[in-house]
Amino acid sequence: MLTRNKLLLKKSNLNILTKLFLPYSNAAATDNRPHIPVLFEETINYLDAGPSKVFIDMTFGAGGHSRGILQKAPDATIYALDRDPIAHEHSKQLAAEYPAGQIIPLLGKFSDLPQLLKERNVKQGTFDGIVFDLGVSSMQFDESERGFSHSKNAFLDMRMGHEQITAAEFLAKIDEPDLAKILRVYGGEKAAKRIARTIVESRSTIGKTETTKQLADLVASSVSQTYRVNKLQRRSHVATLTFQAIRIFLNNELNEINYGMILAQRYLKKGGRLVIITFHSLEDTIVKRHINGNIIEGMANPVPLKYSGHDMVHDQDVMESLAEKTWKQLHKHVIVSSEKEVSENARSRSAKLRAVEKIN
What we know:
By secondary structure, the protein is α/β, with parallel strands linked by helices. The protein has helices at 11-20, 40-47, 64-72, 85-96, 113-118, 138-142, 167-173, 176-187, 192-205, 212-222, 240-250, 253-267, 281-291, 316-323, 339-344; strands at residues 54-57, 77-82, 103-107, 127-133, 228-229, 235-236, 268-278, 295-296, 299-300, 327-329, 335-336, 352-358. It has two domains: 11-139 and 253-358, Rossmann fold, CATH 3.40.50.150; 165-250, Putative methyltransferase TM0872, insert domain (DNA polymerase, domain 1, Orthogonal Bundle). It is 40% helix and 15% strand. α3 (64-72) links the parallel β1 and β2. It is globular, with a radius of gyration of 21 Å.
């Protein structure tokens, strides 16, 4: 059985993060603030924050979007969910700034939410707005000890919480065919087989892969390029997709997003608003298919509708449920960051925002 390393949450490290954290304001970004909320104005506007409304921030992070809601509606109630213990500490700090019970910090994954809300006697159909800011937060990328970034050498952790094994433990056990499939499916890595073979073979030659630099170097040795150019003609490290794939798999991110979309539909009031920010196509595809009703048995259909046969579903109840629309889209085209925002915050360049209203 694989041992579980505890997440590095030394009190001194947490104190440093606490000192760095600044409440979000509309003032220009400064170098002292570790997290700049992406598509902030658009998110707050589409959430339609108003007096006495109740919200769930499903990805609290550093609290930028939650603070934005409170700026517009100071008496709003916010349930602040995050699976990251450091983010959870930030949500408790925010709660201390407001009257008791106005900010409710919740530690857990999307799939933990029903139990967390049940413990607080919160019923379905309670919330006026829900916001998701998916992907890895700036805090997670910037803290080198978390092991998310290939640009900073650290222990290969990659856990968003501490409920599963580390990336180092994963790479010490995974078989070559399974690793290649993970790199291809979750990272879109064309050299998946070569990279997987190099990583697995290295266990018997140079030992376990336990740091971000070791993994990045193994990937670089497997491909001929020193860097890659993405669709927007930007350079990226050759290990970027490998890191992405392992992170998504370890943290079960896509299944969590799928379940999160189901929960949003259940817990929003009729007329409630849902705002979702995604950062890559795997996330966005799941969100888009839920919004468009392209779901089968509670999951985003893996096959686009244009490739689906009419004979895929025979059950009349299922057919009728597919025909019923749950969401009304609040904008015609997907919303992306402005050139100004991208120039101020490079991480916003791949962000896509979708906002909908619950009509069923």
